[in-house]
Amino acid sequence: MSAPPETPSRVTPLLEQFEFARERLLGRLAGPVMDSGDGADTEVGPMTDEEYFWEPVVDCWSVRRRSDGPGARATHLAGAGEWGRDAASYPHPAPPPFTTIAWRLSHLTEMLTLRADHVAGSRALTRDDYRVKGDVATAVADFEAASEAWRKALAGVDDAALDTVGYSTYPHGSDVEDPFVDIVWWVNQELLHHGAEIALLRDLHRATRG
């Protein structure tokens, strides 16, 4: 059996950035401590279902029971199973709806799950296959598993793959048109900016709801 490819030097800093952002977000979500930004640990409790679904403004997009139907300005609930995530076909509503932690975490987890599959799996999963979760404990566990699947997918690519257009066949982005190294960068920025949004929503919830 051949040895796994050595991690290309170009992807090493991107992979390190991804792992740092993932661990920082997991700390924010589940505790018992989080990185405060200066290397010190700050105590934080695990997120509750109330926080997960908290709607700080009216007409948020969120995760909902399929039997309840989509929220305001959404046309359908994406995903499979009892729960779905508010969504709309293009063109999306303008201005964009404000989204809950549940929506943002589900979006991240679905993206990581599907992109890992379209790099190192069946290359067949779609959003209709992804099962949206209706409780925070399962949602956090799924995010952890999805981020690990993506990390393992990256660990299996060689240098030539980074320059290959369409190496990832993920059908809901520009993957089939861009070199894979651009997709790796894009996944990082998705994790960084949605992770920051989730962290801010936790801070706002604590400050306004106690």
Describe it.
By secondary structure, the protein is mainly alpha-helical. It has one domain (12-209). Helices cover 47% and strands 8% of the residues. The protein has 6 helices and 5 strands. It has helices at 12-30, 49-53, 101-120, 136-155, 159-162, 180-209; strands at 33-35, 41-43, 63-65, 76-78, 83-87. The protein has a 3-stranded antiparallel β-sheet. It has a two-stranded antiparallel ribbon with strand order 1-2. Strand 1 and strand 2 form a beta hairpin. Helix 3 runs parallel beside helix 4. The radius of gyration is 18 Å and the shape is globular. The chain starts with 11 loop residues before the first helix and ends with a helix.
Topology:
Elements: H1 12-30, E1 33-35, E2 41-43, H2 49-53, E3 63-65, E4 76-78, E5 83-87, H3 101-120, H4 136-155, H5 159-162, H6 180-209
Antiparallel strand pairs: 1-2, 3-5, 4-5
Helix pairs in contact: 1-4, 1-6, 3-4, 3-6
